[in-house]
Amino acid sequence: MNRMDTTVTPLRVGLLGFGLAGSVFHAPLIATAPGLALDTVVTSDPERRKQARAAGGPDGEVRTVASADELFADADRFDLVVIATPNRTHVPLAHRALDAGLPVVVDKPLAPTAEQARELAAKAESRGLLLAPFQNRRWDNDFLTLRSLLGQDALGEVFRFESRFERWRPRLKGGWRESGDPEEVGGLLYDLGSHLVDQALTLFGPAASVYAESDVRRAGAEADDDTFIAITHETGVRSHLWMSATAAQLGPRFRVLGSRAAYVKYGLDPQENALRAGARPAEGTPWGVEPQDAWGTLGAQDAPDELREVPTLDGDYPAFYDAIAAALHDGTPPPVTAHEAAATLQVLEAARSFAHSA
């Protein structure tokens, strides 16, 4: 990992929310990012407050407050606010952060609609403030590897990009993510779909048309748990994207078909499991490394002797907050923009509309 200069004064970060997103992804990455210091966590849950106070890494104990009101009442204390709260709160909290003059990172999805994302982008631009959606899976090991292969023209002309986030969760877990209330912005389309579509648009450009199928498969479920999206990109590439909680056997994470070769990759990036297990990225320590038996293959079926394993590049979630720190310190562009998030949301809206009208 290439980290920024550790001699700069760390920027103080306020983190709203300490559920899955806040505790597993944001807090560890902020606390270990040179140039940032996790200062305050907003959570009203007593057990989460206890856990949050210990999440500060080398910068010491984290302060906790019970509400967003308390954080914004002390806005001058912060250099950056990160929103990792339930989806329905992303837009109002992002507006409050920008109105308080604070740069803001918002967990995906940035907003329920592309229009709301563009409104946030316009407000941030008018105030000269950073607004960055957290699309960490641009730094998945398999995505970085595929992007490198495309840069080398290793597949020739790409015809079809197949990408899956599949799980086997036949029993409901409950909570807002599985709620059928549209206000909650739950379901897999806006959860895993936000990552799948963002990756497809990043690799192959804007969408020209969208087709989708969306189902509620599990007994008692309210939100989509088995969804498929097909995108025809303006470049002519077709992306086929699957997201499911009902896959008893998992398909390949990527299958990318080109005029000279295909790339096929199974398995998930190891960083999420490492973070869940309490591992933390550190300078000089291997991070996001995948064993050889999980590497993907590159080649063509009619030349089996030329099929070869492709070493998977190391995953690099820390790069997101390194880039955020650089943007705030040096004025460099953010790693992900609100306009990119709006393009993803436009596809998700089209997919939802198509699926509901079918």
What does this structure look like?
Helix 2 links the parallel strand 2 (36-42) and strand 3 (63-65). The protein contains 10 helices and 14 strands. Helix 5 runs antiparallel to helix 10 (338-357). The model has no long low-confidence stretch (mean pLDDT 94). It is 32% helix and 22% strand.
Fraction of helical residues: 25-40%
Please count the helical segments: 10
How many DSSP E strands? 14
- List the strand order in the largest sheet: 8-9-10-7-11-12-13-14
Proportion of beta-strand residues: 15-25%
Largest sheet: 8 strands, mixed
The protein's oligomeric status is single chain
Please write the string of helix (H) and strand (E) elements.
EHEHEHEHEHEHEHEEEEEHEEHH
SS-derived structural category: alpha/beta
The rounded Rg comes to 20 Å
How much is the average pLDDT? 94
Question: Which spans have pLDDT < 50 for at least 5 consecutive residues?
Answer: none
Give the termini separation: 46 Å
Gist of the model:
This protein is of the alpha/beta class and 358 residues long. The protein has helices at 20-31, 46-53, 68-73, 90-99, 114-127, 141-151, 192-204, 271-276, 318-330, 338-357; strands spanning 11-16, 36-42, 63-65, 80-83, 104-107, 131-134, 158-166, 207-215, 226-233, 238-244, 254-258, 262-265, 296-299, 308-310. The chain is built from 10 helices and 14 strands.
Question: Can you give keywords for this protein?
Answer:
358 residues; alpha/beta; six-stranded parallel sheet; 10 helices; 14 strands; globular
